[in-house]
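Why show two proteins at once? Because comparison is the fastest way to build intuition. When a single record is shown, students tend to memorize it. When two are placed side by side, the eye starts asking what differs. So, the first record is below.
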Amino acid sequence: MKISYSWLKQFIQTDQTPQELSLILTNIGLEVESLETVQAVAGGLEGLVIGHVLSCVQHPNADRLRVTTVDVGGPEILQVVCGAPNVAQGQKVVVATVGTTVYPNEGEPFKINKSKIRGEVSEGMICAEDEIGLGISHDGIMVLPGDAQVGTPAKVYFKLEDDFLYEIGLTPNRADAASHLGVARDLAAYFRTDIRMPDVSGFKADEESLLIDVKVEDTAAAPRYSSVTISGVTVKASPDWLQNKLKVIGIRPINNIVDITNYVLHDLGVPLHAFDADQIKGAKVIVKKCAAGTPFVTLDGVERKLSAEDLMICNAEEPMCIAGVFGGKNSGISDTTTNIFLESAYFNAVSVRKTSKRHGLKTDASFRFERGTDPDMTVVALKRAALLIAELGNGKISSPVSDIYPEPVKPYEVDVNYSNINRLIGAEIPAEEIKAIIIALGIHVAAETADGLSLKVPAFKVDVTRECDIIEEVLRIYGYNNIEIPSKINASLSYSSKPDKEQTQHVIADMLTANGFLEIWCNSLTKGAYSKAPDEAVQILNPLSSDLNVMRQELLMPALESVAYNQNRKTADIKFYEFGKTYHLIAGKYVERPRLLILLSGNNQAEQWNQKPAPVSFYHLKAAVDAVIGRLGIATYQLEEVKDERFAFGLRYFRGDKTLVSFGAATAADKKKADVDKDVYYADFDWALLLDLVRKNKIVNKEVPKYPAVRRDLSMLVDTDVTFDTLKSIAFKTEKKLIRNVQVFDVYIGDKLPAGKKSYALNFTLQDEEQTLTDKQIDAVMQKIMYNLAQTVNAEIRK
């Protein structure tokens, strides 16, 4: 939310600098994310001065150019070549001198240099209003009144002052601070001073010539509806002061009527809407809900189908505006509008939020209505806007205020106890100080005892409904920095079950990160089209879009979107991991499953001068999977080829009927859905099961073996369907005590081998913890292994 420093000072008198005020705002809960110097006009008219055209003659070499001499109050008279058709001797004009940077409405800024134009020297530029951001006209140069003082800086002449813009990170519960008045209220409470409210005491109906009959059929959705009419209005450009106010906070001026409604919105926090009164058929305004499917064309020219729950502002025949959200195309203010119906209302926040979300419309008005506006401010804002429209649009207020408010919103009644305030805040704040802060915040003290206060909280503080909310308000204004950290800290020892879930996750995350993996966090919402089990998908009842309409059932597809995002930006070498949850609807119950995903794509390492890049493979993924399993201390499990539609091929580690991890290559169909065109390998761990297995691990400390290990190599021919894991299992079954490790160091399949055969070269590590192994013992073990390999898988040992 953007807040202007000078605008704030209309409400509250302060000598604090913008920088000091920035710190105060942050300390009282309105975090200032940025503070910058801004100018209502780009460039601040720096370098532009008021000049007097002393002479103006035809350019000797160009029919459409004039050669002028201009006095700008300096020691020398400037010669300026000008192409404007209205330039003439004796005019007071705005001149951009040599060295000045000019900021036009359209196009890039440019610097004025001394130059020759068709052979004539030009020492500046006589400016049109659109060339310096003061208007939109380009019919000719700006001609100023004759009393303009030569040499006066344009910035001074046009009374253009620098302002300071606060970007406040407004939290959703602080709807009361969504305006300059709201921010000023907090500052007034901090400084213990008064707010200077706009004076609307001069409001009165000049006549009663334009009466519109107003009827509210749905008072639950529109508890208060105020309106007034203004006739004889001239729609035109707003005066400079109003345009500058809006420009500073980033709002483009449109015309005096629309600008006034925008100004009051950001001034008082009350959204207004102006209708062309002549377009209100039957001279009736009805606030009601229309039939489902009713077509309605909004201001942006889009035809929308209304829901039966959408509150509409209608005339006698048709809807004119989506209440609190967006106006209609045919009832808004145009250049030909002369009579206005002005609305100021308090709409139900839930109703506006649902309508806004249903139609995908987010406006400044809906932003405030759906968070809660001040029902007590509608008439004040209405009178403020009506007076401005009458003044700036030369109109007359042509009806008394219509204010339909059948059941006034009552203040929240909250009791607070001084001891609770001090207990929660952690400091002893005097009772008088607490009471002073509460009163400064605009909260009424209905009753007081020695123990606490009975309060009536005004309706504009929509988030203050409980004692703890009052305590938060007191702490904000008292100051978080004023609460001292105690020197004594009390703590208690507690038993926690093992393993520590967070610590175990950090261990694995640190290991993966140390090996070049990057952690990703993907959105838990994803496309329903990704679902492989639609019947188990957790549907979002009111999705933001079709791309975010279900909870994810696997971590892969959102991760593949991250792969595509990176590959499209020339970052093709990817090593990702993510700890996350998947969501399922099984037998009518919602189930969350913690998972760990590891994903590889591209090259295994970056290209180097002495090494060519090699693409990642299934075996790089397997090494990462084994590292995770090993780091968790899980040593016993079975494996088999994965038979799952989620993988093109792969393996599965399991114990009994429980799968620890499935890993392999992503399918072509999944890659196509995410627009990935490179090989992707991934592993899907059941993280909850792994934690359960880790819980059962027992740590056993052993001494470093005293006796050396021995290695023996063995080469053999086996059938192509025999896996290394089978050979490894046979070796350990043959000798459980002495064999420490079995590794494969070569595999060969080719035309030099018999059909259906492949060659394996394995190494075996043997070690005895009690003695040095002899050749006789080693040979005996190796003979048993060779025999069992031959008997079990028909291995042919190669000599």
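Second record. Ask yourself what differs from the first in the token line.
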Amino acid sequence: MSAARRRRRAARLVPAAAASWAAAALAVCVPQAAVWAAPALWAVAVVGCALLWQHPTPVRAVIAVAVVGAAVGVSHVALAQPGRASVDDLAAGGGRSLVVEATISGKLDPNSAGDIWFDALADRIAAGDRAVTGGVLPLRIGVSADAVASLGRADIGSEVTVRGTSIPVRAGDRAVLVVRAQEVIVRAERPHAVLAAASDLRRGLVESAGALPGPGAALVPGLAVGETRAVSPSLDESMKASSLSHLTAVSGANCALVVGVAYGASALVGARRGARIAAGLVTLGGFIMLVTPEPSVVRAGAMAAIAMFALALGRAGAGLSVLCIAVVLLLAVDPWLAVSLGFALSTVATASLLVLARPLAAGLCRWMPRPLALALSIPLAAQLACGPLLVLVDPRVPVLGVAANLLAAPAAPVATLAGLAACLAAPFPWVQDGLTAIAWLPASWIAAIADVVGSLPGQQLPWWSELGGLAALSGVSVCVAVVVLAPPGTNRRMLRGVAVVVVCAVVGVSGGQTALRTVAGPWTVPGRWAVAACDVGQGDAVLLRSEGAVALIDTGPDPARLETCLARFGISRLDLLVLTHFDADHRGGVEAVRGRVDLVVHGPSGGGAADRLLDGLRRSGARTEIAHPGMQGILGGARWRVLWPSAAVAAGNDASVVLDVRGGGVPDTLLLGDLSAEAQQAMQRNEPLGEFDVVKVAHHGSADQDARLYAAASPTLALITVGADNDYGHPRESILSTLASVGATVARTDQEGIVAVWRGDDGALALWRERDVVGAR
């Protein structure tokens, strides 16, 4: 049989996998429709199977597999819907106080703020006198840093009672509820039998590795058994920036490595194929129990098990068919995988290795030695296939990701196997420590690669976000594949030429923008700036800098415009983010700083979307504190103090956080949020204002202002953050006249773009405008 025909036969089940995936995705996103769709799909499935029985053909077989897989997955959603609807009704859309009795079903993951998150299966969820019981109710539970100690040595399999607040889930989430826990009571700390033993083994490996120096010690448990609790935020960021974070996640590659070792060892002792396969499956089951049988691990193990089944049938070469069968079965058992980015990445990565790796190696052999081409083809295939999906999470492309994976490739299997052996050697401490030290060497190599590659300037190429970014990078991936795969010859020359032009154009545009915004961007703004108003349209985003520490006051309405401003000033991390209030023009750009903030100070949230936003920031590693008058903090050498809001103001513009910032090279600055005249007057009654060098004018220069406040503040410079041609007529003539009467110079972002301020050598304020506009006030 020719190679082309074998490839076509292997790809026959791709439509079945795609149909099952689409049906499952629609069902979990619109679960009400699953109730009537399930019977219809089963009717079609019965007819299809009957036709297949009468006249078997490959096409009918594929259709039958697709319809049956879709019917099972949709039925799963339909059967689960009544219980999920009951929980949603109980939680009342979020913000409700709940008591949950649950069993921990996933590993405990800490974030950089010290909070711990884990998956659980609830036995009972209660709100007041109402309760939902029975069934398997998957939850996501977050325990704040203050309450983490109450978890003790709890691990997967432990039983807990949680008191907390419900957070609404999105359509398609596996969890029926997300709970932010204020109190945790561990009813049964030790999990049962096998799970308890596995927990002890993992904990022993962490303790053994903890005695070793450097970041490599923290990677050993992650490389061996997916235990990442010891990985620091900086190391985690370096692993992500260098495209190496997949090495510390238990994936199909880990499972295949473990199964391969068991299979090979059985072969060495002369075992028959059936015995070798049985040894591989038993070893795989033990490995899954050791690293925690959470959904992602079970998914990886299921793919490896189906591959073993194909081997038992003598069809080891039909990799793509095996993958398609695995996808259909996994989606039938867990249809919520259809909207899981992790599942999509796992599937696409595996498919790329099966379909692309060998042709890429053959194409690369035209330009480099065969061994290097073979080594390069695997990370290149994964990068081309997974890159477009990854920009949905992080709109940056790791330029040297393939090179980093190529350098790390020889070390990863050694670290994984040595670390796994060390984990199992826990009863013999001296043996365990020796094996851990062996694993530490390649783990340290991987950590060093991550640190060097992740810190290189320009390594993270900013990309377009969301679906536009996915489409653009998909186009680049296809064109790169065409350049490598197209064989030489006149007929292919034009195709390859077009592909090269497309790649160069897209990468050139993106690279040029990146250079302007990152490498060259900071050269285009004053190096001594202390206060800067970003041009983010009709919204607020003001930067403060003192002795290298940076604060951002509000995020504006658009993440892309805020990201442009941050890159222009060379800012990659924020020591402080202040969300004065939760109107869209002050918090809409928060995605640009998610995962890059240490402390968030905010005004009253009012519940709902604001609470979800704050919870998302906490999940990404930030600490959050609600502002109150008299609250103080340090930013480098500067001191900030909260003047407002009063406890009597619940939410909205008049609950805006007002900051007084002084010292540390920052001109005395007053930031007024969106305060109205009435609130401005109330604030002055509580605490009379002194004079300020800079005042950020309230509410984009609306007419609702108290002239006495600006007279008391007597600013040298008034910043107005406002969008060009806005519908509100901001800034109004009345406030411009007030500012003129107190002798303030006015700088406004609608006319002048970014505005930066600092104190010159002579002590006077220095002002820089991005655009010089004739007639600008």
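One difference worth noting in the second protein: Confidence is low (pLDDT under 50) at residues 773-777.
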